[in-house]
Write a structure and sequence with these properties.
- The complex is a heterodimer of chains A (169) and B (438).
- Chain A is built from five helices and four strands.
- With 169 residues, chain A is of the alpha+beta class.
- Chain A has two domains: 90 residues, Alpha-Beta Plaits, CATH 3.30.70; 65 residues, no CATH class.
- A four-stranded antiparallel sheet of chain A has the order 2-3-1-4, with helices on one face.
- In chain A, helix 1 packs antiparallel against helix 5 and helix 3 runs antiparallel to helix 4.
- Chain A is rod-shaped.
- The relative contact order of chain A is 0.29.
- Chain B is mainly alpha-helical and 438 residues long.
- In chain B, 71% of the residues lie in helices and 0% in strands.
- Chain B contains 15 helices and no strands.
- In chain B, helix 3 crosses helix 13.
- The two termini of chain B are 24 Å apart.
- The chains are: A alpha+beta (169), B mainly alpha (438).
- At the A-B interface, helix 1, strand 2, helix 2, helix 3 and helix 4 of A face helix 1, helix 5, helix 7 and helix 15 of B.
Chain lengths: 169, 438
C-alpha cells in the first residue's frame, strides 16, 4: 500500500535513479514505489523478490475453462441425448475444441483480473505525490522515512542526481 | 527513430489526436453513409425476407459467408504482429502493433455481424445459446458451427482485452496531458494507472500471458473456421489441409490490410520516422512467405484431387479452373500467388506506391479466394442438379458488404483520432533511456 507521507525524488536520468536506489537500499530506507514512463526490469527485480503472482490467476482460469468446456458440452449432449453421425452421445474428440477455447477465454479473463487485483486497479483518485511527468520522461522514487531522517534521505537523493525532492503529502 | 526522445514520442503520437481537418471529416462522413446504407439494406432484408438475397439452394452460402471468412482472416495478422512477433522479440513490430491490434478488434467485430445477418430472424439469436428452455433444444457441441461461435466470441473478447491492456499505460499518458472532460474520460479508462514498479511488473507478466495465450488461439480460430467447410463431405471442402491453408491465407490477407492502413496513416500523421520503410519492408517479406504457403496449398489441393483418385474431387477442381467461376479463380491465383512475388525485388517492396498497389491486389485476391472456395464447391456437389449453378450477389448483399467495409474503416478512423495509434510506452522502450554521461 502506497503511503502518501514521505519524500519523493524526481529524476531525469535512468542511471541517476539506479544510483539513488542503490544508496537508499544501502541506508535501509523504506522504498515505497518507483515511477517510470517505461518498465524498468532491473528495478522490478531489485525491489520485488518474487515473480508476479498473475500467473496463478491465469492458471486458475485456464483449468476452470477446461472443466467448464468439458462440462458444458457433456451436459448439453446428455440433455439432448441424440446420436449424431453414429458417434456416442458424449463424444470426447469434439470436446477438446470446446475445452480449448474455454481454457483460453477464462485464462485471459483471470489474467486480466490478476493484473488488476495485484496492481490495485482501478483506482479513481490519483495520489497527491504523483507527478504527471512520470508518464512523459521523468522517473520518481517514493520513500517513507521518519521526520528525523528526512534531511539525510534528501541528501542521498540529491547526491544521486535528483532534480527535485519534495514532501509526498 | 533512435534519435527521438521520450518527449518527442509523446508529442508525435498525441499530435495525431489533434482536432480533425476537413479531409478526415469527409472520410468519416463517407464511411458513416456507407454504414447507414448497409443498415438500410439489412432492414430491408428483415422486412422483406431472405428471398432478397441471391442465395438459393444449392448456393446457400453467398457473400455473407465470404465476408465473414474474409474479415476473420483480416483479423489474424493483428495478432501475429502484436502477440507472435512479441514472443519472438521482433522489436521492429513495436510501432505498428497498436494499429494492427485495433485492426484485429474491428475486423473480428465486423466479421461477427455476418452470421447474425445470415440468420434471418436475428431477434431469436438467443435460441442457439445453451440454456434450459421449454423447447428442450440444446446446441450441438459436436458441430463445427458451434465451435465457430465459441472460437470467434473468444477471439473477439481476447483481442479486445489484449488491446485494452496494452493501451492502459498510454491512456495514462493522455490523461496527464489533457484537461477538462477529455482528462476525465481518459482518467476513467486508464483505471488510475501510475506507472509504479509494481504495476509495471504485473502488467508485464499479464501482457506476456496475453501474447502466449493469443498465439494458439489465433491459429485455432481460423482452423475452426476452415472446419465449417472441411468437416462436410462437399468435394472441394473436405480436405485435411484446410486448417493450415486457412491460417496462412488469413495472415496473408491481414498483412496486406495492415500495409494498406499504415501507408496512409504514416503519411497523414507524419509518422515516417516511427513507421519506417524498413518495417513496411519486413511486412512485405512476410507476405512473400505467406504467398508461397498459400500457393503451395493451391497446388496441394490439385495434387490431392488427382492423387486420391476421387472422381468428384477431381471434377470439382477441373471445373473450378475452367467453369463458371474461372475468372474469379484466376484473379485469386494472379493476385495471391504471382503478384506478391514482386516483393522479391527490393525496389518494389521499398516503394510506397508499389507496396500499396500490391497489397490492394492481395486483398482483392484473398476476397476472391473465399468466393471461389465457398461457391465453386457447392456449385459442383455430388448432385447433378447443383452443377453449374451460378450465384450473383443482389444489391442487398452488395449494400451490406459496403456497410461492412465502411464500418471497419469508420472504426479505424475513430481509433486514430481518439486513441494513440502507436504504442507510446512500447516505442519508448526501444529508445535509449535518458542517462547521465559517466
Amino acid at each position: 500500500m502506497i503511503n502518501n507521507s514521505g519524500l519523493i525524488g524526481i529524476f531525469a536520468r535512468r542511471n541517476c535513479l539506479q544510483a539513488a536506489l542503490k544508496a537508499l537500499r544501502k541506508n535501509r530506507v523504506d522504498i515505497q514505489a518507483v515511477y517510470s514512463p517505461v518498465p524498468l526490469h532491473e528495478v522490478e527485480e531489485a525491489l520485488s523478490a518474487k515473480p508476479s503472482s498473475v500467473r496463478y490467476f491465469t492458471l486458475t482460469g485456464a483449468l476452470l475453462g477446461i472443466v467448464s468446456g468439458i462440462f458444458l458440452s457433456a451436459y448439453t449432449s446428455l440433455q439432448w441425448n441424440f446420436i449424431v453421425g453414429g458417434k456416442p452421445v458424449v463424444s470426447y474428440v469434439p470436446m477438446v475444441i470446446v475445452a480449448f477455447e474455454f481454457c483460453i477465454l477464462l485464462a485471459i479473463v483471470f489474467n486480466l483480473l490478476g493484473m488488476l487485483v495485484n496492481s490495485q486497479l482501478p483506482r479513481f483518485s490519483i495520489p497527491v505525490h504523483y507527478d504527471t511527468r512520470f508518464t512523459q520522461d521523468r522517473f520518481g522514487i517514493l520513500v517513507q522515512c521518519a521526520e528525523s531522517e528526512r534531511a539525510t534521505v534528501t541528501t542521498i537523493l540529491k547526491a544521486a542526481g535528483a532534480e527535485e525532492v519534495r514532501h509526498a503529502t | 527513430m533512435k534519435d527521438l526522445s521520450y518527449t518527442d514520442i509523446n508529442q508525435k503520437v498525441m499530435g495525431g489526436m489533434s482536432p480533425p481537418g476537413r479531409v478526415y471529416l469527409f472520410f468519416v462522413a463517407s464511411c458513416f453513409l456507407g454504414i447507414v446504407s448497409g443498415a438500410l439494406c439489412w432492414a430491408y432484408q428483415i422486412a422483406t425476407g431472405m428471398g432478397v438475397e441471391g442465395i438459393k439452394h444449392p448456393m446457400v452460402w453467398g457473400t455473407y459467408l465470404i465476408n465473414f471468412v474474409f474479415w476473420v482472416g483480416i483479423a489474424h495478422s493483428g495478432t501475429l504482429i502484436s502477440a507472435i512477433l512479441f514472443l519472438f522479440r521482433a522489436s521492429w513490430r513495436t510501432p505498428i502493433a497498436r494499429s494492427a491490434e485495433a485492426m484485429t478488434v474491428f475486423a473480428i467485430a465486423t466479421a461477427g455481424l455476418f452470421p447474425f445477418i445470415h440468420l434471418g430472424r436475428v431477434w431469436i439469436v438467443y435460441w442457439i445459446l445453451p440454456y434450459p428452455n421449454q423447447r428442450n433444444l440444446w446446441p450441438n457441441f459436436q458441430s463445427p458451427l458451434v465451435f465457430d461461435v465459441i472460437a470467434i466470441s473468444t477471439y473477439l473478447l481476447v483481442s479486445a482485452l489484449f488491446w485494452y491492456t496494452g493501451l492502459i499505460p498510454d491512456l495514462a499518458v493522455i490523461r496527464d496531458n489533457t484537461r477538462g472532460i477529455k482528462h476525465k474520460v481518459y482518467k476513467f479508462f486508464s483505471l488510475g494507472w501510475l506507472g509504479s514498479h509494481t504495476q509495471w511488473r504485473h502488467h508485464g507478466a499479464a501482457y506476456l500471458f496475453f501474447a502466449a495465450l493469443a498465439t494458439p488461439l489465433v491459429i485455432s480460430v481460423h482452423s475452426v473456421v476452415s472446419w465449417d467447410f472441411a468437416l462436410s463431405i462437399v468435394p472441394g471442402w473436405h480436405s485435411t489441409i484446410f486448417a493450415p491453408y486457412f491460417v496462412a491465407g488469413a495472415i496473408h490477407s491481414g498483412l496486406a490490410m495492415v500495409i494498406t492502413l499504415l501507408i496512409p496513416l504514416r503519411r497523414i500523421y507524419r509518422f515516417e520516422n516511427l513507421i519506417t520503410t524498413r518495417i513496411l519492408e519486413n511486412l512485405a517479406k512476410t507476405i512473400i512467405l505467406t504467398s508461397l504457403i498459400v500457393s503451395y496449398s493451391y497446388g496441394i489441393e490439385y495434387f490431392m484431387a488427382w492423387y486420391s483418385g476421387n472422381m468428384a474431387e477431381r471434377d470439382t477442381f477441373i471445373w473450378r479452373a475452367i467453369g463458371n467461376y474461372a475468372p474469379q479463380f484466376w484473379i485469386m491465383i494472379i493476385c495471391n500467388s504471382i503478384v506478391p512475388l514482386g516483393f522479391c525485388f527490393k525496389k518494389l517492396r521499398t516503394n510506397l506506391v508499389s507496396l500499396f498497389v500490391i497489397c490492394l491486389l492481395v486483398n482483392l485476391g484473398m476476397w476472391f479466394e473465399r468466393y471461389v472456395i465457398i461457391l465453386s464447391s457447392i456449385a459442383h456437389e455430388f448432385d447433378p442438379y447443383s452443377w453449374g449453378s451460378a450465384y450473383r450477389p443482389t444489391w442487398v448483399e452488395l449494400g451490406i458488404m459496403l456497410g461492412s467495409f465502411s464500418l471497419f474503416f469508420f472504426l479505424f478512423l475513430l481509433f486514430v483520432k481518439f486513441l494513440p495509434s502507436v504504442s507510446i510506452t512500447e516505442v519508448k522502450e526501444t529508445l535509449k533511456t535518458p542517462a547521465r554521461p559517466l
